[in-house]
Amino acid sequence: MIRFTRVTKTYPRTGTAVQDVTLSVGKGEFVFLTGASGAGKTSLLRMVYMEERPTSGEVRVSGTSSATATPRDVAKLRRKLGIVFQDFRLLEDKTVEQNVSFALEVIGAPPAFIGGKVGRVLTQVGLAAKGRAYPKELSGGEQQRVAIARALVNDPFALIADEPTGNLDDRATRGIFQLLREINAAGTAIMMATHNLELIRRSEYRTVEMNRGQIVFDSAESASEQKKAP
Amino acid sequence: MRPLKEALVTFQRSPLLSALSVTTIAFSLFALGLFGLVALNIREALERLEDRVEIRAFVTDGTPAEDVVRAATDIAAYPEVLSAQVVTQEQALKRAQAELGEFRDVFEGAVLPGSIDLRMKPGMRDPQTVKRVSARVKAFPFIDDIRYGEEWIEKLYRLRNIAGIAGIALGLAFAVVSVIIIGATIRMAVLARAREISIMRLVGATDAYIRRPFLVEGFAKGILGGLFALVMTWIAQALINKYVIHTIFFDARIALLGLLFGALIGLAGSAVSVGRHLRRV
Predict the structure, then answer these.
(1) In angstroms, rounded to a whole number, what is the distance separating the alpha carbons of residues A38 and A211?
(2) Is residue B171 in a domain?
(3) Is residue B152 one of the residues assigned to a domain?
(4) Block means of pLDDT (10 residues each) for chain B, length 281 residues?
(5) For chain B: N or C, fewer Cβ within 10 A?
(6) What does the DSSP 8-state code read for residue A162?
(7) Which domain holds residue B83?
(8) Domain A2-228 has what CATH class?
(9) Does A1 touch chain B (CB under 8 A)?
(10) Where are the domains of chain A?
(11) Under 8 Å CB-to-CB from A99, ≥6 apart: which residues?
(12) B201 close contact with A: CB closer than 8 A
């Protein structure tokens, strides 16, 4: 569903960010992406939603290939993906409801459909009572829930989360992670970049570690190797 | 409908920036309008002057009147000639007395030569044509002398050409400056909404969808700016007309063209600004 084939990404000024990465993420899978700052996690994720194209190799996401996708294809692809960032990226002058419905409006969803859908997804992230609030009236954890609601409102097949708990305290982090687990349990694949080793340790999800643009550890591969070994 | 609503919302949300854009467009177009007004009035004045371009062919004293009339009829049939009028000696004297009233006494008992006065058709009043027709008229044996203010016509023509070229050059310069300024103000509007644009793209809005409200906005600002410019130009013209010198204003067609031009620069400025922004992020 998400497949990297020998992907290298080089920036003209900062050099190689991702080097010869081959990786695939299956339907409904939860994958942690970890590694030091500058290891290439963000670049990798940006290539999933095709904000960046590989310098060489191919990224294929739900049938859309980085080699051939037009700007229109990219827009269509993003309607099937949910994207969440460390800094939430909410519109300050819109209410919680408006921030979420915005994602449906700009892709031309029928207005009759939008109201009900926004209500349901806000309930899902636990913010049903705060629809009329503005982002700055919310805590960091709540703002991230709004961002997640916005990412979910299109029923994406995968959620791409780049350090979603990076700005949050422990309590809020646990809350957000719990929410992501629930979303994943409902069938949405999740690719989440994080520094938080505690989260990784406490869960049984697949973990991919990057260092200097390369994958240095993939728990899925080591598990299959262990199976083969005896 | 959506882009229209969005454009309206932008006006409401950043009224200062919108007002600034409209004002800039208005003043750029006002400058353009003033220049257009000057060019229009110079042209109009020159046309009035050109109307007076006249060839006067003096008739030798004692030529039978019927010969002169026949010649005048012939000359009137030339393709370049609008009219050829016979002026007898008596008429010439009367005219001179009327035109130069204060020297009335000087003409007492004087004899002025009769003439054939030619008017040229519009578009045939350039020095070469006038010279050619003069030469042809001079070929009549009873034409004594011919006057057409050679130097004056050439000066008039040079002036008209200079005014025309200066008009085109300055007008173009103003138009380019307008487009640049308008592009910059729209760019400010785009940058003010950069965050919103980036989120739109993130959730899968197409570039065309993102672009549309800005184009509507630019178009509306252009028309609004054009309207203000038109009003300002009109007031300026009315004031000049009243206190300084008689001038004319654009006709409806040119005024409408000006508005359309404003809308076009608004649209072009927006398209360039948004396009550049979308390509860059």
Answers:
(1) 8
(2) yes
(3) no
(4) 72 77 82 80 76 82 85 87 86 80 70 85 82 86 82 75 78 76 78 88 91 87 90 92 87 88 85 85 66
(5) N
(6) E
(7) 54-147
(8) alpha beta
(9) no
(10) 2-228
(11) A90, A91, A135, A146, A150
(12) yes
> What are the Cα distances from residue A56, in Å, to A14, A18, A47, A53?
17, 10, 12, 9
pLDDT in tens, B79-122: 888 888 888 888 888 887 777 777 767 767 677 888 888 888 88
Q: Can you read off the two tokens belonging to residue B9?
A: 């919302």
CA distance B277 to chain A (A): 14
- Let me know whether B96 and B20 are in one domain: no
Residues B232 and B118 in one domain: no
| Rounded distance between C-alpha atoms, residue B246 and residue B78, angstroms | 36
> Tokens at residue A68, please?
């051939």
Count of the separate structural domains present in chain B: 2
Q: Is B203 on the interface with A (CB under 8 A)?
A: yes
Residue A220: is it exposed, middle or buried by C-beta count within 10 angstroms (0-12/13-18/19+)? middle
- Closest residue of B to A90, CA-based? B199
B203 and B69 within one domain:
no
Could you tell me if B142 and B10 lie in one domain?
no
Point out the domain boundary residue: B124, B147, B170. Answer: B147
Residue A178 pLDDT more than 90? yes
Sheet strands side by side (includes A81-85): A81-85, A158-162, A189-193, A30-34, A206-211, A214-218
